[in-house]
Design goal:
With 517 residues, the chain is an alpha+beta fold. It contains twelve helices and 21 strands.
Length: 517
């Protein structure tokens, strides 16, 4: 009880600072977000907070329908043995690795990594580079890879996946499920699709976890507990598919992006025991290890991920060769990747304020990839502004709903490929429909307080590449009209810098936060 009271004080303290970015959580609640939604969103940043209990046994291939043959073969790359303590890891750089992230994962100083000349701590390293890194870790999780990154991120590997068709053909409990979410009746496919879109987590992975935990996809849940909490997160007042899938996707992102940045390095099993994650794992494998640790004691965790009837075996039965699919599409961040030229998202000559520097792109767990801008027009704080948010470049609108818009800059019509710019808090009127082609400076909507919770009218803007949320400051800096974003140690703070000029983020709009395109 004492710990809960302390956490409540912490949550109440952070409420004003975190007010912008709670999209999709409790839009039907007074004030836009309930206390429980806030608690869980913040708890996602500290996995020790989420209350989790043992749940029904997961479905195994032997329980699956006849169309899913039992398979115990190894469907992932062969495991590797970590070197003895005091020796060295022979590590091959993967796409998206930075020196700073590797130092965090391996638990070494940056100077201990033999980097090529000129390598910067925050820049991407060349994939395939061989590094000899000291082993400072006495015990880690298994080094056996579980899934490629493109199977966790909602990437091009699943861009054409027919989610409703798959669910209906499987014919399980999910195919007839309905739930009211934010005062709207949604079926099972719509719920999974909504979470996949909003958090950019692969719907295939969400379905496989749901099937492994409760057989919702191909069969029937074993009891009422598996109906109310199909994944096994027993968070008070958060029962049902939508809440459970939201928590699942959030926790996957917590570990995935934390591993990318080198800040997430240990998992904590259901009984409270912690273990260091093997530093050679890819982000998706670290994230799956983390999620299953939240749901299992250590012995059950080992059986679920590396036993004879394991999760990756079921994943292959359901969706085929994940590693082959990943090889066919290539890395999420290809060598030489750079952000294309983008303009500030408003009309030249207008005065806008940088109201928030780098902060979570969507919710807790996503990287600090978003910026907030508010027009300086003298209107009431939460009035729908007469000013327009405009397209920072040409492209196609691929998603336009719930005060959100996704603009695909490569114009292929998929949110899961190439550069995509995401906007939030747009007023309901004036937003182009999905499928619309836009040019630079095409009006996209009016900044407002609508959608989620907002302390003032603004537009929230973030980026994705091949489905992966991109941090605003780092190897792929967010640059608009030549202004480059710089993060602060704190969310929502930070600056934009161009040619020695600095604009400082502030929610109250002082002169130092004003920017003109």
């Amino acid at each position: 009880m004492r710990r809960k009271n302390i956490l409540w004080l912490v949550w109440l303290f952070f409420l004003p600072a975190l007010a912008c970015n709670f999209p999709g959580l409790g839009r039907n609640a007074p004030g836009g977000i309930s206390g429980e939604h806030l608690r869980q969103t913040l708890a996602a940043q500290d996995t020790t907070v989420t209350p989790i209990q043992a749940t029904t046994s997961p479905a195994t291939p032997s329980q699956a329908p006849p169309s899913q043959a039992t398979q115990s073969a190894d469907v992932t790359p062969a495991p590797t043995s970590p070197p003895p303590a005091g020796t060295y890891y022979d590590y091959t750089v993967n796409s998206g690795d930075t020196p700073a992230a590797l130092a965090g994962r391996f638990g070494v100083e940056l100077a201990e990594i033999p980097l090529p000349p000129g390598a910067a701590a925050e820049n991407f390293l060349e994939p395939g580079l061989k590094l000899s890194i000291p082993n400072r870790l006495s015990e880690t999780t298994s080094a056996r890879q579980l899934l490629p990154d493109s199977e966790l991120v909602y990437s091009s590997g699943s861009a054409g996946f027919d989610l409703p068709g798959y669910i209906q053909e499987a014919g399980g409990y999910l195919s007839a499920y309905h739930e009211v979410v934010d005062q709207e009746d949604l079926n099972g496919a719509q719920i999974v699709q909504r979470v996949a879109d909003e958090l950019s987590v692969n719907p295939r992975l969400l379905l496989a976890i749901l099937e492994f935990r409760s057989r919702w996809v191909s069969g029937q849940p074993a009891d009422q507990r598996a109906v109310d909490h199909p994944i096994g997160f027993y968070v008070p007042n958060r029962s049902g598919l939508y809440q459970e899938i939201m928590i699942t996707a959030t926790q996957l992102n917590v570990a995935y992006y934390g591993w990318r940045q080198g800040t997430f390095t240990s998992i904590k099993y259901n009984q409270g025991v912690s273990q260091r994650v093997d530093p050679t794992l890819n982000p998706a494998s670290a994230a799956v290890q983390h999620l299953f640790a939240l749901l299992n004691r250590q012995g059950d965790w080992t059986e679920a991920l590396y036993g004879q009837e394991n999760f990756t075996g079921l994943y292959q039965q359901m969706f085929g060769d994940a590693w082959g699919r990943a090889a066919s599409i290539g890395p999420l961040f290809p060598p030489g990747l750079a952000q294309p030229s983008m303009e500030l998202p408003f009309v030249p000559g207008e005065r806008w304020s940088l109201t928030a520097g780098p902060h979570p792109s969507w919710n807790a767990g996503t990287p600090r990839g978003a910026l907030d801008f508010s027009p300086v027009t003298g209107e009431a704080v939460c009035a729908i502004s007469r000013a327009w948010v405009t397209a920072p470049g040409a492209g196609m609108v691929v998603r336009s709903s719930d005060h959100a818009l996704a603009l695909d800059l490569d114009g292929d019509g998929y949110e899961q490929t190439g550069w995509v710019i995401f906007f939030y808090h747009l007023a309901g009127e004036g937003i182009p429909a999905a499928g619309s082609t836009v040019n630079l400076d095409t009006p996209l909507g009016h900044p407002s307080c609508e959608g989620g919770r907002a302390t003032g009218k603004h537009v929230h803007i973030a980026r994705k590449y091949n489905g992966e949320w991109v941090a605003a400051d780092g190897p792929l800096p967010f640059t608009l009209s030549g202004w480059r974003a710089h993060a602060d140690e704190r969310n929502y703070y930070g600056t934009l810098e161009r040619d020695g000029q600095i604009v400082t983020a502030s929610p109250v709009g002082p002169q130092t936060s004003i920017i003109v395109r």
